[in-house]
Design a protein that fits this description.
By secondary structure, the protein is an alpha+beta fold. The model has no long low-confidence stretch (mean pLDDT 88). The radius of gyration is 14 Å and the shape is globular. 29% of the residues lie in helices and 19% in strands. It has a 5-stranded mixed β-sheet with strand order 2-1-3-4-5, covered by helices on one side.
Length: 112
C-alpha cells in the first residue's frame, strides 16, 4: 500500500509540474496575463463538463491543446467534479499549484 501511495504522489508531482508549466507558457505568450479564474484563493481546477457547486478555475479552454494535451487528474480517480488540483496566485503574481489529496502526509505544492 505504501508503494502505491508513493507512486500516486510521484504522479501528482508530475501533474502539478505539467499544469504549472502550461500556465507559465500561457502567461509568456500573453504578455504576463494569467488565465481568468485564477485568484489569491486556492481554487479547484475543474474538468471539462464537470458540474460543481464550488468555484472552479476552468483552464481547459485556454490551456488545452496548445499548452497541455489535457488537464491532468489525480491518479486515485476519487475526484468527481474536479482534477484534484488547486491553483492560486500570490502577491507578485506567482502561481501556486497544489495537490490536496497527497498521501503519506506529503505536501505537494509548487510555486513559480
Amino acid at each position: 500500500a505504501r508503494q502505491f501511495s508513493q507512486a500516486n504522489n510521484s504522479q501528482r508531482w508530475s501533474n502539478v509540474n505539467a499544469i504549472l508549466n502550461a500556465v507559465h507558457q500561457y502567461s509568456v505568450d500573453n504578455r504576463g496575463a494569467l488565465p481568468s479564474g485564477i485568484t489569491g484563493t486556492a481554487t479547484q481546477i475543474c474538468k471539462v463538463g464537470a458540474v460543481s457547486t464550488t468555484t472552479c478555475a476552468w483552464l481547459d479552454s485556454v490551456l488545452v491543446p496548445t499548452y497541455v494535451v489535457s488537464i491532468p487528474t489525480d491518479p486515485t480517480g476519487v475526484t468527481v467534479n474536479n482534477s484534484g488540483y488547486t491553483i492560486a496566485t500570490t502577491t507578485g503574481n506567482r502561481i501556486v499549484i497544489s495537490a490536496p489529496s497527497a498521501e503519506l502526509g506529503t505536501t505537494i505544492t509548487i510555486t513559480r
